[in-house]
Amino acid sequence: MLAQHNIGCCYATGQGVAKDYAEAQKWFVMAAEQGDMEAQFNAGLFYYREMGMGAERDERKGVRWLLEYLKTAKRQGVDFTGSNPRSAIRIVEEFVSKADPEDVQKWDRELMLLLCECYREGIGLKKDVKEAAKWYKKAADQGLTDFVR
User: Fold this and answer.
1) Which of 16, 48, 49, 77 is most deeply packed, by most CB within 10 A?
2) CB atoms within 10 A of CB 116
3) Distance, CA of 26 to CA of 56 (rounded, Å)
């Protein structure tokens, strides 16, 4: 996991290899899928901000990885005043604030579930049961009732 994240960093910075953002993104995602917190953050940034030529841009994937990062950070007792958690929170809030109700219908189950959980539990975002309920309703409206209780 750590080695995969480090390989991603090498490709992102060109350290020892030619700089290749698509390759960096691939390695970050591999490590992120195994629960590496920093890789989750980097994968989120690469998807959300398209860090360079060749990296895939997909805001929803980016936000999903950033929410995973926030959950992992909370489990590991990370101080949320640090720059990475603050950046992740700012991106998630930006994404949610500009979410078009029509676009929400295109969100995948994992992203919707993570957002609901983060609002409900106060993971990175201000704990807000009403906001969580609003997103659970949107999920239910999409037919994602298997996790809506």
Assistant:
1) 48
2) 22
3) 10
